[in-house]
Each structure stands twice: as C-alpha cells, then as structure tokens.
Specification:
The structure holds two protein chains of two kinds.
Chain A: H1 3-34, H2 41-59, H3 64-90, H4 97-118, E1 132-135, E2 138-141, H5 142-164, H6 166-176, H7 178-183, H8 188-210, H9 222-235, H10 240-257, H11 266-280
Antiparallel strand pairs in A: 1-2
Chain B: E1 2-11, E2 14-24, E3 29-34, H1 40-48, E4 53-60, E5 63-64, H2 70-73, E6 78-81, H3 93-100, H4 108-121, H5 123-127, H6 138-150, E7 156-160, H7 168-185, E8 189-193, H8 196-202, E9 205-210, E10 213-219, H9 220-225, H10 227-233
Parallel strand pairs in B: 3-8, 3-9, 6-7, 7-8
Antiparallel strand pairs in B: 1-2, 1-4, 4-5, 9-10
Helix pairs in contact in B: 3-6, 6-7
Classes of the chains: A mainly alpha, B alpha/beta.
C-alpha cells in the first residue's frame, strides 16, 4: 500500500465528501427555515443534472458556462415555485405530515417528468470534466479538483450571504423566531421562498458536478441523497459546519474502507456510522444544540 | 393618531372581541387592563395585523391599516413588543438590536447612535452586548425586547405584558423605562397589563377589557378612584 495510493483515496474521498456536505447543506437550509425536511431534494439534484446535460448541453448545444448559468437560473425559479406551491401553503397546516407528503409526491412528479422529457436510458456528456491533474506521484481527476474548488467557493459564498447581507440576516431571524421576525418587518413567506430558491440552486450545482462521477439517470442521486442525510446526522443536524465535517468524514472513511473490506460494501460505511452516532452521540460530532 | 372603531375578532367560531373601540392621541400613554383571557393581547395583535378583524376598522395617522399584513405595519411606524419577549435566542444582544432596525436604512453611524440610545436606557444591555440573547435573564430579555422595539424610531409602540414573570424590582425599572421612552421621544404608548395598578399609575387614560368588551374607559386618575375598578382589579 503506497503512500500515493492512500493520498489519492483520501483526496477523492474529500471530493465525494464535499458532495455529501453540499447535499446536507441544501436540505439544512430548508430544514432551518421551515422546520420541514424536503424529501424531494435528491430529485431536485437529478433535475439539475438533467436540465444541464439533457436540455442545455445536448439538446440546445450551449457551452458549459452558458448552460451552467441557465441551469442555475431555471432551478432558482423552480425552487421558488416549489416554495409557493408546497412549502408555504402547507407549512402551517395542523401537522407537518402534509408538507412532508407534499414533498414526497413532488419528488415522484419530478422523476416521472424527467422520464417523459429526457427518456429512461442513462446518458453522459462526452468529455465533460474528464482528464487528470498530476502532482508528483499523486494523480487527481479533473472532476474531483473541480468539485473541491466549487464546494469551497459555495460554502464561502453562502457564509458571506448569511452574515453580511440584509436578506441573509433576515433568514437567521426567520430560523430562530418567525413571530419576532414578522414584527421586525421581515416578510417571512417571501424569505422562505428565497431560501428554498437558494437550496434549489445548491441542488443544481451538485447535479452538474456529479454528472462526471455517475452518468445522468433516474437513479443517479439515490445514494448521495441518503448519504447527505447521514452527513447531517453525523456532523450535527441543522448546523452548517456540522454538515461539512460530517460529509467529508463519510467521504474519506468510505474510500479508506476499501483498503480493508471489499469495495462493494463501501456504501455501508455511511449508514453504519450514522447508526452508531444516533446511538452514541445523537447531537453529532460538533454537538450543536438546537 | 390611532383609531380603532368597533372591531369584532374571531378565533375560528369563537368571538374574542366585541365591538371594541379605542383611541390613542399624540404623546399619550394609554393602558389596557383586564383579566386573563379578556382579549388584551388579541386587541394588540389585531392592531398590528396578526389577527384579522371581521368587521370594524383601524386607522393610523389617517391611513386605513385594517387587516394589513403584520410585517408592513412596522414600516408605518407601529412597533409591537410582544408578550413573552420573543428575542432571537442564538443572536448576540447587539445583533438583536440591529435586527430591530430591519425596516430602516441606517448608516453605520446612525445604527451606532440608536444602539447607544438603548444602552443609555438599559446600561445592563451594554455589558451583555456580545452575549447570546438566549442566555440572558428574563428581565434582561425584556429590556432587549423593548430596546429592539426602540431601534426603528417608532411612531407608536405597543407593550404587551412587559412585567410578565419579572421580579418586582425589575418591574419598576421596566415601567420607568416606558415612561422615559414616552417623555424623551414623545412616542405614544399603548401598554397592556395584568398588573393594573402599575399600568394605570403611569398612563394618562385606561381602557378596561372584560370578556372581549370594553367595560370602562376614562382618565387613569379617575378610574383609580372608582370603587368598581378598585374592587375588581386593585385588590379592594
């Protein structure tokens, strides 16, 4: 077992871990602002991938930059429509189960729409984010490099937005006390719309990044959807630094586990870890109390 | 400046307010007293727009604000300091104050000036400026809630049960602060209280709510002497 090989496993683990972290961030945004879990979040990631690859790149022949901008914009609008159609009308119902079922059904609708519009067979964008970078004896794929860079930029951008803009600060208020937020003059419903819009944008970015790891298909996001959830539980639910720590930890351990167990079992690592954390340390590594 | 005329408010099918009318003039302190469940908080929430009024109207400085969305009211200058304080627990005292000015576009110098004003009124908050609001004592949270209400230079300020659950010493401090706010800035004040004696002794006029109806109203000094009020609310 050479040093370079272990380093390579760790680096690709970090990249995959950042994907889990972003998934975790994307649903944490909605959870914090509405108190509801978005059970269609993995379908939104898939929709982002289909919109980018299926629609903008392959059908319309856009360049990658134009396609990315178009995907992000259309997903933001999708997010706002979802907020207006499902989250805001349903969040004040007698039981949160209404909104939860609403998001589950929406996930089905998105999946079937993708099947109707882009077909049921998996496809790929030839040559998209392929290739490698070499640092001495360590080889890193271009995709992993991009994932790490984009994830770090995204986290920084979100932090700046939340701590230094007025609507970002308003989101903190809405998270902590909706009544008081209203009394400060914050339009709570509109604020939730924007939060869900941002969450959909994060979903679309994840979708674009994972195209190079998995091919575009109707089941491409099943696993990262659940592992992103595990990342939140392990790191500390509802807390951004927890999402990042949990995601990266899962990514690295999962990859290193292939050194000792057959690699077909590596998907179990995240779930075993999640169960252990639920039993032993339910508040997660960073132990943030809500 | 505030005129509430004959409002009827319902929770589902249950009527909470019956033809309630009240008025607040310039620079006035008006108190609303009554027992638990008499409809005091409902009245405040109807003014601010959290509760919808079925019939009747509310007017503020000539503008019809009946059933206006609550987050709009603050832009008209009406601030509601809610029962139970409702601070943002995970934010520092300072940020809580800054959020009080959400409806205003202050420069950083203006923001500092407004914060200093609050700190002058409640020096305790300055000591705790960097502390999370959730870790403050009940009295300090109430100070913060009042201070946060002051940040937007309100044209009318509504206090809902500012003495709720506070030690008697702090209660005095709270009422002194309310009088001072009214004097310093000539801000008209509505104060809703179960602590009837305190509320009436600082206010110019008083409305008495009983089971959703205004049973008495008039100058506080006169009502304080009324045998009926004495018997029902002042303990003899």
């Amino acid at each position: 077992m050479s040093f370079a090989m272990i380093m390579q496993l760790i680096i690709s683990g970090i990249a995959l871990g950042f994907i889990y972290s972003m998934v975790s961030i994307e649903y944490t945004l909605i959870f914090n602002s509405t108190g509801l879990l978005n059970f269609s979040h993995d379908k939104l990631i898939m929709l982002g991938a289909y919109a980018f690859a299926g629609q903008f790149v392959l059908r319309m022949g856009c360049g990658y930059v134009v396609a990315t901008i178009a995907t992000v914009l259309s997903m933001f609008i999708t997010g706002i429509l979802i907020a207006k159609g499902i989250f805001n009308p349903l969040r004040n119902m007698a039981s949160p189960i209404f909104a939860v079922i609403g998001t589950v059904i929406m996930g089905r609708i998105i999946k079937e729409l993708c099947r109707i519009i882009w077909g049921a067979t998996a496809f790929n964008i030839p040559g998209f984010m392929k290739g490698t970078f070499k640092f001495g004896s360590i080889v890193i794929t271009r995709a992993n490099t991009y994932i790490i860079i984009v994830a770090v930029l995204l986290v920084i951008a979100l932090q700046l937005y939340f701590n230094h803009t007025k609507s970002g600060k308003a989101m903190h208020c809405v998270q902590q006390n909706k009544t008081a937020a209203t009394l400060m003059g914050i339009n709570v419903s509109q604020n939730i719309n924007i939060t869900i819009g941002i969450s959909a944008v994060v979903c679309s970015i994840i979708g674009i990044l994972v195209i190079s790891l998995f091919s575009v298909s109707l089941t491409m996001t099943n696993m990262i959807g659940i592992k992103g959830f595990a990342a939140g539980v392990i790191g500390g639910f509802g807390y951004f630094p927890g999402c990042i720590v949990g995601g990266v930890l899962i990514g690295i351990l999962e990859n290193l586990s292939t050194l000792v167990i057959p690699s077909i079992y590596k998907d179990c690592v995240a779930f075993v870890l999640m169960i252990v954390f639920l039993l032993v340390q339910p508040k997660g590594i960073l132990g943030h109390k809500k | 400046m505030l005129k509430v005329s004959d409002i009827n408010v319902f929770y589902g099918k249950v009527q909470a307010l019956f033809d309630v009318s009240m008025e607040v003039g310039e620079n006035e302190i008006v108190s609303v007293i009554g027992a638990n469940g008499a409809g005091k908080t409902t009245l405040m929430k109807s003014i601010i727009g959290i509760n919808k009024t079925q019939t009747g109207g509310i007017e503020f400085n000539g503008k019809n604000i009946t059933n206006q969305k609550p987050h709009i009211s603050i832009y008209d200058g009406i601030v509601y300091v809610p029962e139970g304080r409702e601070v943002f627990p995970e934010m520092s005292v300072e940020i809580n104050l800054e959020m009080g000015a959400f409806s205003k576009k202050y420069s950083s110098a203006q923001m500092q000036e407004h914060k200093e004003e609050v700190y002058q009124l409640f020096p305790r908050l300055k000591e705790r400026a960097k502390q999370k609001a959730g870790t403050l004592s009940g009295g300090e949270q109430q100070m913060l809630a009042i201070g946060r209400g002051m940040m937007s230079d309100p044209a009318l300020i509504l206090f809902d049960e500012p003495s709720l659950g506070l030690a008697p010493v702090i209660v005095d401090e709270m009422f002194d602060a309310i009088v001072e706010i009214n004097k310093l800035k000539n801000t008209p004040v509505i104060i809703v209280e179960q602590n009837a004696f305190m509320a009436m002794s600082i206010s110019n006029r008083t409305y008495v709510l009983e089971n959703g109806k205004i049973s008495h109203s008039g100058l506080s000094s006169e009502l304080l002497e009324s045998p009926e009020i004495k018997k029902a609310y002042l303990g003899g």
